[in-house]
Amino acid sequence: MLLKTIISKPMHLLFAETAWRLLKKQRQRGFSKRIVAAPSSLKFRPLRYFDLQRDPLQGGVFRATLDYADAICRGEFNFLGYPCAKLGRYPDWHTDFISGASWPREPQVAVVRHDGSDVKVPWDLSRLQFLPVLGKAHVLTGEEKYRARIWELVDHWITENPTGIGVNWAIAMEAALRALSLCFTLDLLTPFRPEEAKMVERITCSLWEHLLFIEAHSEFSFFIRSNHYLSNIVGLLALSAYLEGPGMDARRDKYAGRLQREIFFQTYADGADFEASMGYHLLVCQMFTAGYRIIERAGLSLDHRFRERLEHMHRFAWEMADVQGRLPHVGDCDDGRVELLVDDLEQMRLPLEQRNSLQVAGFLGVGERLFGYGQQFRNEDAEWYGIVAPVDKRGIRPRVTLAPDCGVARVSSDPAEVWFLTMPNGIKGRGSHTHADKLSVLLQLNGDPVFVDSGTACYTRDAALRNTFRATAAHNTIRVDDAEQNSIDRALLFRAGNEARVSAIEIRNEEGTTVLRANHSGYERIGVSHERTLRINAESVEIRDDLAGTGEHRIDLFFHLGSGWDASAIESQGAEVGFLLTKDSREVRLWSRCPSAANAAAEPVLHSQTYGFFFSAQCLHLQIQASLPLQIQTRITWK
User: Fold this and answer.
1) 248-266 helix and 304-320 helix, angle to the nearest 10 degrees
2) Which fold is adopted by the domain 400-638?
3) What is the pTM of this model?
């Protein structure tokens, strides 16, 4: 597959990529031999990235910040999808504290080992994103324990992680995100005290080494780029903006320019990230927003076209979120952040089974404040930044929202909210974070998820589980003859075939009923095509699946139920099957009419709302054996 991809590239790109890789190898060899000493004139300069407004932050948000900071002071480290990790005052930065597996302190280490370990655990710990929370707690309270804990942890991390050695220096992305945390934290602690001079100098030298490492190990490619390379640029922009010294002015201009150009490579015109994932849209939007803030604070040149595309990114998230500020779990989500959000801190106070890493109302409020639209979501995160832009209080969700380039439609028909997914494979067909969710339907009633996406659960810790969560059966769509919409090589956890090309979503209105239609080509290799039509109004959702082709095939139809919903069969009359879905006092009925007798059951499945944790749920599964062409009609009603 890789060879086929390379051969398909234009010759000039092949030459450019070859030259770039040779240059990169040369840089890495030079870096591994010696680390250039920091210039004696190198200094850290504050940008006031955060402009804390103390008064509005009293209350729940203030308490969540202090609770998280106090836990870090006790040696307790919280992450969205894991139980509280009691790692003590000095964590083992090289160990997956879930499996107990450790990585050696060597220049080159294997990050994926298929032994039950997950490299994301030491990576997330070493991103040091708890440090800015400690810094905020210190600024808001004046308590010295938070400041002292910062110096203690940073000093220990630098000692235990010599530059270029060990798992936390395996890729440039991790160095970049860590550098952002260090820069934001020092910014919060300025002005520094005389007795802190040596520690500040040590961290400044470490930041210089981070800069050199990222430059030597850049994840750029002429073929394909992703959030990894974007993190490199944002990290380099931050480092060159926060460091004052020889060559920094030129670096600032260079990386500010690269960042602003990259947004047009990694996003669609409708504002969506090109990785076919809501979780990664959030991460990428946060990266570009951080870069935008740094450019503003550093007084660098800002292209209005970059600002407009960033606004489109925020608006896409705003329009796709539900009324509670939750994005649907579409595609991969590994809970990645540039910095911890207010919502993250509050989610970490909940039991694991109640957490949702795409609860992001605070970040949606940042977009509202920055770009002056809406006032639907709370804006505590915006207050961290001191963003006080005028807000248009008339912001109301459109009834039908279509993001045509990324292939998502959202229909609001009170009390129903419906998302229809036709997302093309992400990263220009590579499918690194794409799930087999073509023509999948998500449904909420009064803000309560009824039909949901299964989520992500894990990456490398369990390859089989990873593939289960990204497979066709994990989504509310149709599978034919046990085939995947896109072929999956079970050993390639971040790659998928690109067979399932999707059509544009057709939208029309028929006397108060919204009609959506689309199709995909994922089953054409077995002689089958799939088209789905939705009819949505305030009382029901009707789904018609048309399968064209010849011969007899096994057809599976899946509907994954949201947390707390219970299903029971209410009637089965040969080709007609009905289910009653109940939750508390609410009822939803689902009827499917098939061309032949259907086997139907509510089956146990696994769902995930935050990376690293999954729980038991139910899935409605209908299966028929029939000759094509055929049509399956499903009607969903509620009281």
Assistant:
1) 50
2) Beta-galactosidase; Chain A, domain 5 (2.70.98)
3) 0.95
